[in-house]
Design brief:
Helix content is about 60%, strand content about 0%. The protein contains 6 helices and no strands.
Amino acid sequence: MSTENYAKPIRILHSLLALCMLTQLAIGELMDVPEVEDMPVPVATSSFITPAFAHEAHAPSIPGAAVEETLGFEVHEILGLVIAGLLLIRIMLAMTSLPGANWRHLVPWMFADGRKQLLAETKLQLAGWKQAKLAPPEEGETVARSVHGFIVLAGIGMGITGSILYFGWSQTAPQTDLIELVAETHELLVGCLEALLAAHILAVILHQRQGHNIIARIKPTS
């Protein structure tokens, strides 16, 4: 299947989203979160894992004291807004007739014919996965687009929960139960997105090793 099956705006947006999401995930793992603790958090002095990886401040927190935003957290917020804008553009493109853009391609499981095709392709792909060999891209199009759809949905969920945290996160007091629940949901969506991206990248690597040249189908410069 040629790259003409994906319109150029979709290919450009795909690259931008991939770059921004991977960067955002990395920042999210490394940044410090400005959070007021009920109890002081001691700094680990003999651990190979720095406090930043645990999303805590570098210095021991003082109960009830305000915590300043870190550069990583500020970049995380700004990049989150950028990703939200890109996802909004993707949603708008899904309402057009551009090749590979329609929303029916992203959520085929919502339609009887899409579910039938998805089931058939999944069985074919699973048989190949057992031998680390994937079917040609044209025989797994619905599966690939479904993964894209789940990534978009996960991104939208992260955007919604992230927006709630943006306005509700307190830097002067411990978080409310609602904000804690939203934060946990946000983290859960992060894990789902990481799993989806890992599976997507692995599939691309396997396709490339089999000579399917799948990257050429989605390159923004093609």
